[in-house]
## 1
Amino acid sequence: MDIQGKVAIVTGGGSGLGRAVTEALAARGARVAVADRNAAAAQEVAGAIGGLALAFDVADASAAEAAFARVAAELGTPRILVNCAGIGVAKRVLGKDGPQPLADFEQVVRVNLLGSFNTLRLAAAAMAKLEPLETGERGVVINTASVAAFEGQVGQAAYSASKGGIVAMTLPIARELAQFGIRVIAIAPGLFLTPLLGGLPDEVQASLAKSIPFPPRLGEPAEFAALALHMIENSFLNGEVVRLDGALRLPPR
Protein backbone atom coordinates (compact mmCIF):
# COMPACT_ATOMS: atom_id res chain seq x y z
CA MET A 1 0.00 0.00 0.00
CA ASP A 2 1.26 3.43 -0.89
CA ILE A 3 1.24 5.49 2.32
CA GLN A 4 0.97 8.89 0.63
CA GLY A 5 -2.42 10.48 1.34
CA LYS A 6 -3.76 7.58 3.41
CA VAL A 7 -5.47 8.08 6.76
CA ALA A 8 -3.75 6.34 9.67
CA ILE A 9 -4.49 5.89 13.37
CA VAL A 10 -1.67 5.17 15.80
CA THR A 11 -2.56 4.24 19.37
CA GLY A 12 0.02 4.98 22.01
CA GLY A 13 1.21 7.61 19.56
CA GLY A 14 2.16 10.13 22.20
CA SER A 15 5.51 8.58 23.09
CA GLY A 16 8.02 5.82 22.46
CA LEU A 17 7.39 3.39 19.62
CA GLY A 18 4.03 4.93 18.80
CA ARG A 19 5.47 8.41 18.44
CA ALA A 20 8.17 7.13 16.10
CA VAL A 21 5.49 5.50 13.94
CA THR A 22 3.35 8.64 13.80
CA GLU A 23 6.33 10.73 12.75
CA ALA A 24 7.39 8.22 10.10
CA LEU A 25 3.89 7.98 8.65
CA ALA A 26 3.50 11.75 8.54
CA ALA A 27 6.87 12.05 6.81
CA ARG A 28 5.54 9.71 4.10
CA GLY A 29 2.49 11.89 3.55
CA ALA A 30 -0.12 10.11 5.65
CA ARG A 31 -2.85 11.97 7.51
CA VAL A 32 -2.32 10.71 11.04
CA ALA A 33 -4.58 10.55 14.08
CA VAL A 34 -2.44 10.37 17.23
CA ALA A 35 -4.28 8.43 19.93
CA ASP A 36 -3.00 8.34 23.48
CA ARG A 37 -4.45 8.14 26.97
CA ASN A 38 -2.25 11.14 27.78
CA ALA A 39 -4.08 14.03 26.13
CA ALA A 40 -1.14 16.43 26.41
CA ALA A 41 1.24 13.96 24.77
CA ALA A 42 -1.21 13.28 21.94
CA GLN A 43 -1.67 17.00 21.36
CA GLU A 44 2.07 17.66 21.36
CA VAL A 45 2.81 15.01 18.75
CA ALA A 46 -0.23 15.88 16.63
CA GLY A 47 0.81 19.52 16.66
CA ALA A 48 4.33 18.63 15.55
CA ILE A 49 3.19 16.53 12.59
CA GLY A 50 0.02 18.37 11.66
CA GLY A 51 -2.15 15.46 12.77
CA LEU A 52 -5.30 14.94 14.82
CA ALA A 53 -5.01 14.38 18.57
CA LEU A 54 -7.27 11.81 20.24
CA ALA A 55 -7.34 11.08 23.97
CA PHE A 56 -9.20 7.93 24.98
CA ASP A 57 -8.89 4.55 26.66
CA VAL A 58 -8.30 1.95 23.92
CA ALA A 59 -10.23 -0.67 25.90
CA ASP A 60 -13.32 1.53 26.27
CA ALA A 61 -15.76 0.52 23.54
CA SER A 62 -17.85 3.71 23.44
CA ALA A 63 -14.83 6.02 23.72
CA ALA A 64 -13.08 4.22 20.88
CA GLU A 65 -16.19 4.34 18.72
CA ALA A 66 -16.45 8.09 19.27
CA ALA A 67 -12.76 8.54 18.42
CA PHE A 68 -13.08 6.56 15.18
CA ALA A 69 -16.15 8.59 14.22
CA ARG A 70 -14.15 11.77 14.75
CA VAL A 71 -11.31 10.50 12.58
CA ALA A 72 -13.75 9.65 9.79
CA ALA A 73 -15.35 13.09 10.02
CA GLU A 74 -12.12 15.13 10.17
CA LEU A 75 -9.57 13.08 8.22
CA GLY A 76 -11.47 10.37 6.38
CA THR A 77 -11.81 6.62 6.79
CA PRO A 78 -8.54 5.07 7.95
CA ARG A 79 -6.77 2.47 5.86
CA ILE A 80 -3.95 2.06 8.39
CA LEU A 81 -4.09 1.20 12.10
CA VAL A 82 -0.96 0.70 14.18
CA ASN A 83 -1.58 -0.33 17.79
CA CYS A 84 1.28 0.67 20.09
CA ALA A 85 -0.72 1.44 23.24
CA GLY A 86 0.25 -0.84 26.09
CA ILE A 87 1.30 -1.15 29.71
CA GLY A 88 3.47 -3.54 31.67
CA VAL A 89 3.37 -4.44 35.36
CA ALA A 90 6.07 -6.76 36.71
CA LYS A 91 4.61 -8.81 39.57
CA ARG A 92 5.04 -12.37 40.72
CA VAL A 93 2.01 -14.64 40.92
CA LEU A 94 3.02 -15.42 44.51
CA GLY A 95 4.61 -12.38 46.13
CA LYS A 96 5.67 -11.56 49.66
CA ASP A 97 2.18 -10.31 50.43
CA GLY A 98 0.38 -13.30 48.93
CA PRO A 99 -1.11 -13.97 45.50
CA GLN A 100 -1.00 -11.28 42.85
CA PRO A 101 -4.16 -9.15 42.92
CA LEU A 102 -6.45 -10.25 40.12
CA ALA A 103 -7.07 -6.62 39.21
CA ASP A 104 -3.40 -6.20 38.25
CA PHE A 105 -3.52 -9.10 35.79
CA GLU A 106 -6.88 -7.97 34.46
CA GLN A 107 -5.69 -4.40 33.83
CA VAL A 108 -2.68 -5.45 31.75
CA VAL A 109 -4.72 -7.84 29.62
CA ARG A 110 -7.47 -5.24 29.30
CA VAL A 111 -5.21 -2.54 27.89
CA ASN A 112 -2.79 -4.63 25.83
CA LEU A 113 -5.03 -7.35 24.41
CA LEU A 114 -8.60 -6.13 24.71
CA GLY A 115 -7.55 -2.63 23.71
CA SER A 116 -5.81 -3.89 20.57
CA PHE A 117 -8.81 -5.98 19.60
CA ASN A 118 -11.22 -3.12 20.30
CA THR A 119 -9.53 -0.72 17.89
CA LEU A 120 -8.88 -3.49 15.36
CA ARG A 121 -12.57 -4.43 15.15
CA LEU A 122 -13.58 -0.81 14.61
CA ALA A 123 -10.90 -0.21 12.02
CA ALA A 124 -11.84 -3.38 10.15
CA ALA A 125 -15.51 -2.39 10.06
CA ALA A 126 -14.61 0.98 8.55
CA MET A 127 -12.02 -0.38 6.11
CA ALA A 128 -14.37 -3.06 4.79
CA LYS A 129 -16.65 -0.35 3.39
CA LEU A 130 -13.87 1.31 1.37
CA GLU A 131 -13.20 0.74 -2.30
CA PRO A 132 -10.20 -1.57 -2.79
CA LEU A 133 -6.91 -0.12 -3.93
CA GLU A 134 -5.13 -1.25 -7.09
CA THR A 135 -3.50 -4.00 -5.04
CA GLY A 136 -6.93 -5.28 -4.01
CA GLU A 137 -6.40 -4.33 -0.38
CA ARG A 138 -8.59 -2.04 1.66
CA GLY A 139 -6.48 -1.65 4.77
CA VAL A 140 -3.82 -2.96 7.11
CA VAL A 141 -3.64 -3.40 10.88
CA ILE A 142 -0.37 -3.76 12.76
CA ASN A 143 -0.48 -4.81 16.42
CA THR A 144 2.43 -4.69 18.85
CA ALA A 145 3.26 -7.97 20.56
CA SER A 146 6.56 -8.64 22.37
CA VAL A 147 9.31 -11.22 22.62
CA ALA A 148 7.81 -11.79 26.09
CA ALA A 149 4.99 -13.59 24.30
CA PHE A 150 7.50 -16.37 23.58
CA GLU A 151 10.02 -16.17 26.44
CA GLY A 152 8.21 -14.49 29.30
CA GLN A 153 10.32 -13.87 32.36
CA VAL A 154 9.53 -14.33 36.02
CA GLY A 155 7.05 -11.62 36.98
CA GLN A 156 5.73 -11.20 33.44
CA ALA A 157 2.74 -13.54 33.59
CA ALA A 158 0.20 -10.81 32.83
CA TYR A 159 2.32 -9.03 30.23
CA SER A 160 3.27 -12.27 28.46
CA ALA A 161 -0.34 -13.44 28.46
CA SER A 162 -1.52 -10.18 26.92
CA LYS A 163 1.17 -10.19 24.23
CA GLY A 164 0.72 -13.91 23.62
CA GLY A 165 -2.94 -13.18 22.93
CA ILE A 166 -1.94 -10.68 20.27
CA VAL A 167 0.29 -13.29 18.65
CA ALA A 168 -2.42 -15.95 18.78
CA MET A 169 -5.15 -13.81 17.23
CA THR A 170 -3.03 -12.52 14.33
CA LEU A 171 -3.50 -15.46 11.95
CA PRO A 172 -7.20 -16.21 12.56
CA ILE A 173 -8.15 -12.55 12.14
CA ALA A 174 -5.96 -12.23 9.05
CA ARG A 175 -7.71 -15.26 7.58
CA GLU A 176 -11.15 -13.88 8.40
CA LEU A 177 -10.48 -10.38 7.05
CA ALA A 178 -8.79 -11.64 3.88
CA GLN A 179 -12.16 -11.63 2.13
CA PHE A 180 -12.26 -7.85 2.62
CA GLY A 181 -8.68 -7.24 1.52
CA ILE A 182 -7.59 -6.25 5.03
CA ARG A 183 -4.20 -7.45 6.24
CA VAL A 184 -3.38 -8.13 9.90
CA ILE A 185 0.22 -8.32 11.10
CA ALA A 186 2.12 -7.99 14.37
CA ILE A 187 5.58 -6.88 15.46
CA ALA A 188 7.21 -8.53 18.47
CA PRO A 189 9.88 -6.07 19.64
CA GLY A 190 12.69 -6.91 22.02
CA LEU A 191 14.42 -4.32 24.21
CA PHE A 192 13.92 -0.82 22.84
CA LEU A 193 15.06 2.59 24.03
CA THR A 194 11.60 3.81 24.99
CA PRO A 195 10.93 6.33 27.79
CA LEU A 196 10.54 3.38 30.19
CA LEU A 197 14.01 1.95 29.55
CA GLY A 198 15.50 5.37 28.88
CA GLY A 199 14.77 6.32 32.48
CA LEU A 200 16.96 3.52 33.82
CA PRO A 201 20.55 4.23 34.97
CA ASP A 202 23.19 4.03 32.25
CA GLU A 203 24.77 0.93 33.79
CA VAL A 204 21.43 -0.89 33.72
CA GLN A 205 20.88 0.06 30.07
CA ALA A 206 24.40 -1.16 29.26
CA SER A 207 23.71 -4.46 31.00
CA LEU A 208 20.50 -4.95 29.04
CA ALA A 209 22.29 -4.11 25.79
CA LYS A 210 24.92 -6.79 26.45
CA SER A 211 22.20 -9.45 26.45
CA ILE A 212 21.45 -8.73 22.78
CA PRO A 213 23.63 -10.79 20.37
CA PHE A 214 23.82 -8.24 17.56
CA PRO A 215 23.78 -5.38 17.45
CA PRO A 216 24.64 -5.28 21.21
CA ARG A 217 22.49 -2.26 21.99
CA LEU A 218 18.90 -1.31 22.68
CA GLY A 219 16.66 -0.95 19.67
CA GLU A 220 15.79 2.52 18.40
CA PRO A 221 12.11 3.48 18.02
CA ALA A 222 12.91 4.60 14.46
CA GLU A 223 13.84 0.98 13.63
CA PHE A 224 10.44 -0.20 14.86
CA ALA A 225 8.79 2.50 12.76
CA ALA A 226 10.82 1.48 9.70
CA LEU A 227 9.51 -2.08 9.99
CA ALA A 228 5.95 -0.83 10.40
CA LEU A 229 6.26 1.23 7.21
CA HIS A 230 7.63 -1.75 5.30
CA MET A 231 4.74 -3.90 6.51
CA ILE A 232 2.27 -1.33 5.28
CA GLU A 233 3.95 -1.06 1.88
CA ASN A 234 4.55 -4.79 1.35
CA SER A 235 1.15 -6.19 0.38
CA PHE A 236 2.29 -9.80 0.63
CA LEU A 237 2.97 -9.57 4.36
CA ASN A 238 -0.10 -10.91 6.12
CA GLY A 239 -0.97 -13.07 9.11
CA GLU A 240 2.61 -12.91 10.38
CA VAL A 241 4.32 -11.98 13.65
CA VAL A 242 7.79 -10.54 13.04
CA ARG A 243 10.37 -10.44 15.83
CA LEU A 244 12.50 -7.31 15.97
CA ASP A 245 15.03 -8.10 18.66
CA GLY A 246 18.64 -8.46 17.48
CA ALA A 247 18.41 -12.25 18.04
CA LEU A 248 17.56 -11.72 21.71
CA ARG A 249 16.09 -14.63 23.66
CA LEU A 250 14.99 -13.64 27.15
CA PRO A 251 16.38 -15.61 30.09
CA PRO A 252 14.10 -16.71 32.94
CA ARG A 253 15.12 -13.66 35.01
## 2
Amino acid sequence: MNPPLRVLIADDQTLLRASLQVLLDGDGFAVAGTAADGEQAVELALRERPDVVLMDVRMPGTDGITATERIVAADPAIKIIILTTFDLDEYVFEGLRAGASGFLLKDCPPEELIAAIRIVARGDALLAPAVTRRIISRFTARPARTRRPVVLAPLTDREREILELIARGRSNAELGAELFLSVSTIKTHVSSLLSKLGARDRAQLVIIAYEAGVVSPAS
Protein backbone atom coordinates (compact mmCIF):
# COMPACT_ATOMS: atom_id res chain seq x y z
CA MET A 1 0.00 0.00 0.00
CA ASN A 2 1.37 3.40 -0.99
CA PRO A 3 1.91 5.97 1.78
CA PRO A 4 -0.59 8.86 1.79
CA LEU A 5 0.27 12.02 -0.11
CA ARG A 6 1.16 14.72 2.39
CA VAL A 7 -0.41 18.10 1.64
CA LEU A 8 0.26 21.49 3.22
CA ILE A 9 -2.57 24.03 3.06
CA ALA A 10 -1.66 27.74 2.95
CA ASP A 11 -4.55 30.23 2.91
CA ASP A 12 -5.51 33.19 5.08
CA GLN A 13 -9.18 32.17 5.14
CA THR A 14 -9.84 30.08 8.23
CA LEU A 15 -12.98 28.46 6.82
CA LEU A 16 -11.26 27.43 3.59
CA ARG A 17 -8.31 25.92 5.47
CA ALA A 18 -10.68 23.94 7.66
CA SER A 19 -12.75 22.76 4.70
CA LEU A 20 -9.67 21.60 2.79
CA GLN A 21 -8.35 19.85 5.87
CA VAL A 22 -11.57 17.88 6.29
CA LEU A 23 -11.58 16.98 2.59
CA LEU A 24 -7.95 15.83 2.50
CA ASP A 25 -7.52 14.13 5.87
CA GLY A 26 -7.84 10.50 4.77
CA ASP A 27 -8.47 8.46 1.62
CA GLY A 28 -4.88 8.51 0.40
CA PHE A 29 -4.01 11.95 1.76
CA ALA A 30 -2.63 13.37 4.98
CA VAL A 31 -2.57 17.06 5.91
CA ALA A 32 1.00 17.96 6.82
CA GLY A 33 -0.06 21.30 8.31
CA THR A 34 -1.94 24.52 7.69
CA ALA A 35 -0.59 28.06 7.34
CA ALA A 36 -2.38 31.41 7.48
CA ASP A 37 0.33 33.39 5.67
CA GLY A 38 3.32 32.95 3.39
CA GLU A 39 5.92 33.03 6.13
CA GLN A 40 4.22 30.20 8.00
CA ALA A 41 3.90 28.31 4.71
CA VAL A 42 7.65 28.50 4.07
CA GLU A 43 8.51 27.48 7.62
CA LEU A 44 6.11 24.53 7.64
CA ALA A 45 7.02 23.37 4.13
CA LEU A 46 10.73 23.26 4.88
CA ARG A 47 10.15 21.54 8.20
CA GLU A 48 7.50 19.02 7.16
CA ARG A 49 8.61 18.46 3.52
CA PRO A 50 5.09 17.78 2.16
CA ASP A 51 4.54 16.29 -1.28
CA VAL A 52 2.29 19.16 -2.38
CA VAL A 53 1.50 22.66 -1.10
CA LEU A 54 -1.85 24.31 -1.86
CA MET A 55 -0.77 27.97 -1.93
CA ASP A 56 -3.05 31.00 -1.85
CA VAL A 57 -1.69 33.99 -3.77
CA ARG A 58 -2.87 36.84 -1.58
CA MET A 59 -1.94 36.47 2.07
CA PRO A 60 -0.79 38.97 4.70
CA GLY A 61 2.94 39.57 5.04
CA THR A 62 4.80 37.23 2.73
CA ASP A 63 2.53 36.54 -0.25
CA GLY A 64 2.08 33.20 -1.95
CA ILE A 65 4.36 34.03 -4.87
CA THR A 66 7.32 34.92 -2.66
CA ALA A 67 6.63 31.87 -0.50
CA THR A 68 6.53 29.66 -3.60
CA GLU A 69 9.85 30.97 -4.83
CA ARG A 70 11.51 30.41 -1.44
CA ILE A 71 10.15 26.88 -1.03
CA VAL A 72 11.10 25.77 -4.55
CA ALA A 73 14.58 27.28 -4.22
CA ALA A 74 15.14 25.37 -0.96
CA ASP A 75 13.56 22.07 -2.05
CA PRO A 76 12.52 21.61 -5.71
CA ALA A 77 10.95 18.25 -4.82
CA ILE A 78 8.06 20.04 -3.09
CA LYS A 79 5.30 20.65 -5.63
CA ILE A 80 3.12 23.74 -5.37
CA ILE A 81 -0.37 24.40 -6.69
CA ILE A 82 -1.43 28.05 -6.72
CA LEU A 83 -4.96 28.66 -5.46
CA THR A 84 -6.66 31.55 -7.22
CA THR A 85 -9.98 33.35 -7.29
CA PHE A 86 -9.15 33.85 -10.99
CA ASP A 87 -10.53 37.34 -11.67
CA LEU A 88 -8.80 38.88 -8.67
CA ASP A 89 -5.35 37.31 -8.71
CA GLU A 90 -3.33 39.14 -11.35
CA TYR A 91 0.00 37.63 -10.28
CA VAL A 92 -0.68 33.96 -10.89
CA PHE A 93 1.68 34.08 -13.88
CA GLU A 94 4.48 35.17 -11.56
CA GLY A 95 3.64 32.29 -9.25
CA LEU A 96 4.05 29.80 -12.08
CA ARG A 97 7.30 31.42 -13.09
CA ALA A 98 8.45 31.23 -9.46
CA GLY A 99 8.18 27.45 -9.65
CA ALA A 100 4.55 26.45 -9.06
CA SER A 101 3.44 23.37 -10.99
CA GLY A 102 -0.01 24.71 -11.78
CA PHE A 103 -3.03 26.50 -10.46
CA LEU A 104 -6.60 25.79 -9.38
CA LEU A 105 -9.69 27.89 -8.91
CA LYS A 106 -10.75 28.03 -5.27
CA ASP A 107 -14.29 27.05 -6.17
CA CYS A 108 -13.32 23.97 -8.18
CA PRO A 109 -15.20 20.72 -7.39
CA PRO A 110 -13.61 18.51 -4.69
CA GLU A 111 -12.91 15.71 -7.15
CA GLU A 112 -10.99 18.15 -9.38
CA LEU A 113 -8.86 19.25 -6.43
CA ILE A 114 -8.07 15.66 -5.47
CA ALA A 115 -7.17 14.76 -9.05
CA ALA A 116 -4.98 17.86 -9.33
CA ILE A 117 -2.97 17.01 -6.22
CA ARG A 118 -2.29 13.52 -7.56
CA ILE A 119 -1.29 14.88 -10.99
CA VAL A 120 1.21 17.33 -9.53
CA ALA A 121 2.55 14.85 -6.96
CA ARG A 122 3.59 12.44 -9.69
CA GLY A 123 5.57 15.19 -11.43
CA ASP A 124 3.15 16.41 -14.09
CA ALA A 125 2.04 20.00 -14.56
CA LEU A 126 -1.53 21.08 -13.92
CA LEU A 127 -2.50 23.35 -16.80
CA ALA A 128 -6.00 23.98 -18.09
CA PRO A 129 -5.40 25.57 -21.52
CA ALA A 130 -8.39 27.96 -21.44
CA VAL A 131 -7.48 29.26 -18.00
CA THR A 132 -3.79 29.43 -18.88
CA ARG A 133 -4.50 31.64 -21.90
CA ARG A 134 -6.47 34.10 -19.80
CA ILE A 135 -3.82 34.29 -17.09
CA ILE A 136 -1.02 34.65 -19.62
CA SER A 137 -2.90 37.38 -21.50
CA ARG A 138 -2.41 39.63 -18.48
CA PHE A 139 1.31 39.09 -18.74
CA THR A 140 1.49 39.74 -22.48
CA ALA A 141 -0.37 43.03 -22.01
CA ARG A 142 2.60 44.36 -20.04
CA PRO A 143 5.46 46.27 -21.71
CA ALA A 144 7.95 43.92 -23.38
CA ARG A 145 10.80 45.33 -21.30
CA THR A 146 9.31 43.80 -18.15
CA ARG A 147 9.52 40.28 -19.58
CA ARG A 148 12.40 37.92 -19.00
CA PRO A 149 14.54 37.32 -22.12
CA VAL A 150 14.45 33.72 -23.32
CA VAL A 151 17.05 32.09 -25.57
CA LEU A 152 15.66 29.35 -27.80
CA ALA A 153 18.73 28.99 -30.04
CA PRO A 154 19.76 25.59 -28.57
CA LEU A 155 16.45 24.02 -29.59
CA THR A 156 15.95 21.92 -32.70
CA ASP A 157 13.01 22.61 -35.02
CA ARG A 158 11.21 19.58 -33.61
CA GLU A 159 11.76 20.78 -30.04
CA ARG A 160 10.37 24.22 -30.93
CA GLU A 161 7.31 22.55 -32.43
CA ILE A 162 6.78 20.46 -29.31
CA LEU A 163 7.28 23.51 -27.07
CA GLU A 164 4.54 25.35 -28.94
CA LEU A 165 2.13 22.42 -28.65
CA ILE A 166 2.88 22.01 -24.92
CA ALA A 167 2.00 25.68 -24.47
CA ARG A 168 -1.31 24.96 -26.20
CA GLY A 169 -2.06 22.31 -23.58
CA ARG A 170 -1.25 19.09 -25.41
CA SER A 171 -0.51 15.99 -23.35
CA ASN A 172 2.26 13.54 -24.30
CA ALA A 173 -0.30 11.20 -25.85
CA GLU A 174 -1.83 14.04 -27.88
CA LEU A 175 1.63 15.19 -28.99
CA GLY A 176 2.47 11.68 -30.14
CA ALA A 177 -0.76 11.33 -32.13
CA GLU A 178 -0.40 14.76 -33.74
CA LEU A 179 3.27 14.37 -34.66
CA PHE A 180 3.16 10.63 -35.44
CA LEU A 181 5.74 9.86 -32.76
CA SER A 182 5.75 7.33 -29.93
CA VAL A 183 5.05 8.55 -26.41
CA SER A 184 8.55 7.47 -25.37
CA THR A 185 10.04 9.66 -28.13
CA ILE A 186 7.88 12.58 -26.99
CA LYS A 187 9.10 12.08 -23.42
CA THR A 188 12.69 12.21 -24.67
CA HIS A 189 12.01 15.49 -26.47
CA VAL A 190 10.28 16.95 -23.41
CA SER A 191 13.22 15.95 -21.19
CA SER A 192 15.56 17.66 -23.65
CA LEU A 193 13.43 20.81 -23.55
CA LEU A 194 13.47 20.85 -19.75
CA SER A 195 17.25 20.46 -19.74
CA LYS A 196 18.05 23.00 -22.45
CA LEU A 197 15.67 25.66 -21.10
CA GLY A 198 16.41 25.09 -17.42
CA ALA A 199 12.74 24.37 -16.66
CA ARG A 200 11.59 22.17 -13.78
CA ASP A 201 8.32 20.95 -15.35
CA ARG A 202 5.78 21.50 -18.13
CA ALA A 203 4.28 24.51 -16.37
CA GLN A 204 7.60 26.31 -16.71
CA LEU A 205 7.82 25.30 -20.37
CA VAL A 206 4.48 27.01 -20.97
CA ILE A 207 5.73 30.18 -19.29
CA ILE A 208 8.90 30.13 -21.40
CA ALA A 209 6.91 29.63 -24.60
CA TYR A 210 4.81 32.72 -23.91
CA GLU A 211 7.79 34.79 -22.80
CA ALA A 212 9.69 33.90 -25.97
CA GLY A 213 6.70 34.70 -28.19
CA VAL A 214 6.46 31.11 -29.46
CA VAL A 215 2.72 31.28 -28.80
CA SER A 216 0.31 33.99 -27.68
CA PRO A 217 -3.08 33.89 -25.93
CA ALA A 218 -4.83 35.16 -29.05
CA SER A 219 -3.57 32.20 -31.05
